[in-house]
Structures are given as structure tokens and as C-alpha cells.
Amino acid sequence: MTARKRLRAALIGTGAIADAHLIAFQACETDIELIAAVDIDEGRARAFAEKAGVTPYTDVSRMLAEQRPDLVSICTPPSLHTGQTVEALESGAWVWCEKPPCLSLAGYDAITAAETEGGPYASFVFQHRFGSGAAHFRELLAAGELGRPLVAHCQTTWYRDTAYYSVPWRGKWETEGGGPAMGHGIHQMDLLLDLLGEWTEVSAMTARLVHDVETEDVSTALIRFANGALATVVNSVLSPQEVSRIRVDCTEATVELTHLYGYRNADWFYSKDFPKPEADIPSSHSAQLPQLIEAIKAGKRPRASGADGRKTLELIAALYKSAATGRTVRHGEITAGGPFHHSMDGRIREGAAS
């Protein structure tokens, strides 16, 4: 019997988050092998390549031409995501890109325009959707066990000091795309949308209270969902006691998830007793990658891709537009060509359209 062919993967950007991708690839080694790593810093590329047992590169185009990978992980700063994702797609590789997907909805739409029916597709790292705790919530909700969602709270209150913002690309609209709503709270907001479904409108405020940056260091928002539920969202990098939290009050039970950077089943609290999940799968890159591999082999669009991946970015764009214009923003009103489609700050033009 012929052994099943493993997919060949490459990684672009060898900073700290690359280790999470490496762990995920190693956990799926029967289906995929990491063969190359790229970093503009040759020393860093070589150090990572030696650790991972792969070929180092300093040039993305050369790596794509020589290695022809099936999948490319992108772990670079946000301003590089659109260009590198499009180049990888055009080379024939599927893409797994770190959050935030890119700097704007325009960048996201450029990525989807480079996709091909049946693949390759670009998927994005929204790993909190993929833990067994989130799957259990969705199953209970779909079965009617929780009743109807009424009120939710989504909290990403973390702490980042001045040294954190000494990295040149952080805290700038042109290179980071936004503050904690874009770079930190995006994970919890994506999970909230995955649990509760489509949002219909958002009203928001942002502020710079501590850090000398272009973007906000705190944001608050009120979101209405298509199912009628209302949610409050708080994103902060000013909070000495750090926590990530989602609470959902339904007609039959309250559900609360409390963690920091990742959860297990024990981090989910239910006000009523329900059957426990059979497996305890932490939210992680290692939980998301197997589903992406399955999609690649089937030639199907994966989760956290296309319209499914765009909805969270559109919510963040709407949050920033609401904060900049002082009015409620409705789902779908940010259209191609408008300032908030082009960039998350919309150039902060008071009353700007779209």
C-alpha cells in the first residue's frame, strides 16, 4: 500500500508566534510537513530553520519558486499580510495567515479576489472557534438547551507597557491597522460572532488614555445581533489584571468563559448542569490546523475564510467608523471605495461616508 502523500508547508516570519505554528505542524506530522521558513533577518531565519529542521530563506518569492509549498503560514506584521497572502495564492499555495487578517476590508477583498474556485483559499488564525468548549456551546444552543440568547459581554482587558509599543510598527494605523480592537480583542470578538451569529449594528467609542500612539488603547462597543441579542464589548491594553471573558445570558442558562490567551473545557461555566464534552481540546493553532488540512485535501473552502473570515474584520471596521463619526453603523454599510473600506481609521474624517 502506498503511503498517503503529506502536504508540504512553509512559514513566512519567524517571530514569537511562529512557534505556535511549528507546534501545530508537528502535531499534524502524519498529514503535513514543514519544509521551509522565511525571514528577512538571515540569522533569525537560520536559527528557526535549525530548530524546525527546515530550509531557511530570506526571500519569499525565491522560496515559493523553489519549494512550491501546498500551504504557507504567514506570521509577519499586519501590513505585510495582504501582499504576501496574494503572492502565495498566486503561486498555487493555500494560506494560513495570522490575525489580524490584513489592515482593511479593501486588503481582505484583494485577498479573496486572488483565490481560485476549489482552492487555493486563504484562511485566518481564529483559533478560539476551534476548541471543544466553543463547539459544545454551539451544540447546546442549536439543540435548544440554552434557550434564546439575550445579553452578552465580550471582554479583552489586557496590559501592554510602553516597551511593547517601542516596536516600530505597533500603534500606527498604516502598519498595525488599529489598537486593541484590531490586534488583541479580535479573537474574543470573532468567537462571540461564531457563537451568536450575524451582527446587525454597532455603536462604539475609542480613546487614547495612556499610550502615546496613533491608534486607540481602549474601546467600548454595543452590538445588536440578528437574533435580537445585545452585547457589550470592551477591548483594552490598560488593565493590570488581565482577562479574556465572554458571558452569554440565555433564557434557560448563563454561560461564561473566562481565560487569558486560550481555554480548556474547565474554563467554561454553565449555570445549569449539561452533559460534558467527550473531548477536551484546547483552543489553539493545533486545534484549527487539522480542519484546514481536511479542507485542502477536499478542495473546499475552510472555516475562517472568505465571507466567514471577513465578518469579524467588518465588525471592527464598523466599530472604528462608529467611534469616528459618533453614530451607529449598520452591517453592510461600509462599501467598496469608502474611507473605512480603505483603512480602519477612515482618515478620521468627521461624518465620512461608507
From TrEMBL:
Biased composition (Basic and acidic residues): 342-354
Record-linked Pfam families: GFO_IDH_MocA, GFO_IDH_MocA_C3
Gfo/Idh/MocA-like oxidoreductase N-terminal domain ranges (all copies): 8-117
Region (Disordered), start-end ranges: 333-354
Molecular function per GO: nucleotide binding
Domain GFO/IDH/MocA-like oxidoreductase: 136-256
Annotated protein name in UniProt: Predicted dehydrogenase
Organism: Amycolatopsis xylanica
